[in-house]
Specification:
By secondary structure, this protein is of the alpha/beta class. The chain has helices spanning 23-31, 42-51, 68-84, 102-113, 126-133, 138-141, 148-153, 184-194, 250-264; strands at residues 7-12, 34-38, 55-57, 88-93, 117-121, 143-147, 163-167, 203-208, 218-223, 237-240. The protein has a five-stranded parallel β-sheet, sandwiched between helices. It is globular, with a radius of gyration of 22 Å. It starts with 6 loop residues before the first strand and ends with a helix. 33% of the residues are buried.
């Protein structure tokens, strides 16, 4: 059980400013002694300061050419410093604080190990927006998700009868975690890997969700062979639809029928 006064709650702000924040997460922000915020623009920062005036940006730890892993550790350190001072701390992160976000997971882990209370409140992520904007139901064909650089680095068995979604394609191929934009060569390498399982003229979507209420999602359809020439931003996601029909597993179907026949008897 927690035995210290300080605490840390990492909340998700959702993707669209003001529209996705849950009442519970808003309450944590309002009641916090200090809010450390990681958001994508100054408009969002000003909006958060309207809820709690003691907001501190975590974006200052990012620098061009700096390893992002060092930035994430600095975020953990500054939040834990406030927790150890006995403060009620909130880490407010855009989207979902547990999705492609190392610092929220780590700061909660450290806090709990040191005897402080720490937990996470979910938020609407880019994945949630993607399902709505592209009218996808993961229960229809199935969907596999991978971080793009990991997909390239490790051997994967691709089910091209289901959807394949590759996240952070704007960083694909960067082992240093220092770049905020991938290069044409790595985009070309990714497309070369994918054409092992998909036709080179297969249409894929480059998706970017809206982050302001007056914005619309950006969905760009391109042939897989043209991926290297496509306009890809740091927050782009690659959505690859199925390219073949699903095949019935006849052996399993026979076993299922046998089970159903036994139940009838």
């Amino acid at each position: 059980m927690p035995n210290h006064e300080g605490s840390i709650v990492c909340v998700g702000l959702g993707m669209s400013l003001g529209a996705h924040l849950s009442p519970l997460s808003r309450n944590f922000i309002e009641q916090a002694d200090v809010v450390y915020m990681s958001v994508t623009n100054h408009i969002a920062e000003q909006w958060l300061k309207g809820i709690n005036s003691n907001c501190i940006s975590l974006q200052v730890y990012y620098e061009d050419g700096k390893d992002r892993r060092a930035s994430y550790q600095q975020m953990v350190d500054v939040m834990m410093s406030a927790v150890r001072q006995g403060k009620k701390v909130v880490g407010a992160f855009y989207g979902h604080p547990g999705v492609f976000a190392w610092a929220p997971h780590k700061v909660i882990e450290v806090a709990n190990k040191e005897g402080f209370h720490g937990h996470m409140e979910p938020g609407i992520s880019a994945e949630d927006c993607l399902y709505a904007d592209l009218a996808l139901d993961p229960g229809t064909y199935g969907i596999a998700h991978y971080e793009a650089s990991q997909f390239m680095r490790y051997q994967r068995v691709v089910d091209n009868a289901a959807y394949l979604i590759l996240w952070q394609i704007g960083f694909v191929g960067d082992p240093t975690c220092r770049s905020f934009e991938t290069d044409k060569q790595h985009k070309k390498l990714l497309s070369e890997i994918l054409v092992n399982d998909y036709p080179d003229d297969h249409q894929v979507a480059i998706y970017e969700c809206a982050t302001l209420p007056n914005e619309r999602p950006n969905i760009q359809w391109v042939a897989l062979s043209l991926l290297a020439q496509a306009d890809i931003k740091h927050h782009s996601t690659l959505v690859i639809p199925p390219c073949r029909d699903r095949e019935i597993d006849l052996e399993t179907r026979t076993k299922q029928q046998l089970i159903n026949d036994i139940k009838k008897n």
